[in-house]
Amino acid sequence: MSVETFAGAVSMAAHEAYGRGRQERDVEHGSRDHFPAAREGSGDPESDIPPGRPVIGSAGWYYEAHEDHGTVWKANRGKDGGWDVVLDWAPYVSERLVLIGEDGKSAGRYYTITIGADTLTKSLSDLRTADGWNDFSDDSGAASRAIREVLINIITDQGKRLPRTPVVAHTGWHRLPTAGLTYVYADGRSYPPSGSVRVIGAPEPLRQAAVPLERTATDDECRRAVDDIATHGWASLMALAVGVRSLAYSLRPVSAAFVLDAAPNSGKTSAANTARSLLLTSRPHAWPPVPTKGMSSTATDIECALDFEGDMPTLLDDIPLTRASSAAQMRDMEKKLELVIRAAGNATEIKGRRNRDLTARPANRIRSIPVIAAQMLPPSMQESLYRRSVVIYLSRDGGEVDWRWYKSGGGQSLTVPLRTLGDRIIAHLHALPDADSHLAELEKRALEQLSPHVDAVLPEPGDTMDGVITAAAAMLSGLGLVAAVTGTDMAGLVDVVAAPLAASLARQAACMDAQSTAQDGVATAVGEVLRRAFSRGRLHIRDEKGVVRPAVSGQVEQDQGLVQKRDGSGWEGKGPAAYWLPGRGPALGITTKNLNMLLKASGDSRVNCYVDRSLPDALLQADAILRNNSQKDRIASHRVRVGTENLRLLLLKPDLIWDF
Fold first, then answer.
1. pLDDT below 50 — which residues of the chain?
2. Which of 112, 100, 223, 117 is nearest to 170 (CA)?
3. Which of 21, 135, 342, 502 has the largest count of CB atoms under 10 Å?
């Protein structure tokens, strides 16, 4: 995990604890004024009295550390003895923070350290590197590794005298060793209220947005806000349900993403922010809340932001695609959607991570229902990603979201009631004796109420849509939690959403069928592209030894991309090479890079949207290539000896290209 520093006031409790420890040390060793200045070779008997406290782990070193001053000494090994001042400052530690891992056990240490004018929080692993000290502007003399090792021992010596403060690396529900089940907010608060836990890694805008408002809403204000949301668009109420259900994600996960596929200016961000407002209020303006990340951010930025925002409404805003977007933009968005949706749907790590010694280390995860706002989804988005998502479709004036109401102040009017609702739902979830069973019952009730509407528009949804419908009902069950804390009827809220949600699911099913048909055409498209490439001299055949010659029996030279040299001495071909491998099935071998280059150049929308990394798996699914049964980690490609070269090739089925 990347180490983060975070600013803020140092906790008063930690200062008081350190103050008590300092008084104890002063009693034990005497006050700072009791020690004379260290001197070398003085012969003074007083110089035999060690200054300050010994540095455990660094023999012959002593230190004194206070918030506004300090000193580090080293014993003089000369014949006159005494102590030399090595540093006229020492790191002052006010907090010892213990990172709590996923299993509830200690997973690392952090210290809040003051050096001169800087008070920063650093991990122990970060302090062991030179970069870990770069943020301190007053650490003169700490450039050598030997000095830094002494300073680390000084820090850990102070830390062991301070109380352990649990630290978590993401928001949401945690089972803490001392406090039990606890919800941690982005600004460091917790429920039940306690000063015994901290959160690290919160971006400053997010931390500020999570700070409590000056007042809470009344019961009537909360009910009125829910009514306003329902009145101004079923999609907004559905988004609220998704956000509320996200608050309980760790207690009972929902393995799916929620996608708003919407025309420009149709209210997709307003709907998503209805959910986001359960926990966040932008400063200085109340609307709209800060998003998790924009989809134009890097994949790593998106991954880390989602990992931090656990058990809270998320928003990836916005996919800015249009029909005029380039193929590169389409592929970039599809890659990010693949990263997020597949991890959410499969409940797996977003991307595997390794330590320097190649051992596995904890990786980032989806810890909530990812909400994705899209101006347009990539036309080539795989059917398998739709299967792991619930997609609702918004039009500018279709009534799904009354964006004009939100824009004219409606969104801001929801700020206080929604923040109050968020806090009440967290308290309600904490009080449940068996949250998993209760949430399962709400999901069952939501599915029972949704199913008749789905049956009316999808009489035979099929196995593929069954999972989507179940996920939609799980998200819809968040309205049961809203009803519980507002004293309203769950069935009445679900009834607002059920029929239009079913119609949207029917549209999603049609889109999935279209994508499935398109994917089935991948193999055909690859054959057509390669057949044209051979005939137009953009690809040529070589035999299994790498020699350029007609190698496919029964096929004319032009269909193999070959022409005879003018002097009649042999054959030549243009473009990349494809290798005829009769002993492999037979098969036509080609590198992934060269094949993808030809597919992109073809302009064929069925196959010009893949990146090199995803193409082999897509071809394997389309049954266009031979499977590698000898390498479990490289099942789509083969290592083939061609002449003197050892190439990694895709082995295409030749009947896709030629008639035999």
1. 1-43, 45
2. 100
3. 502
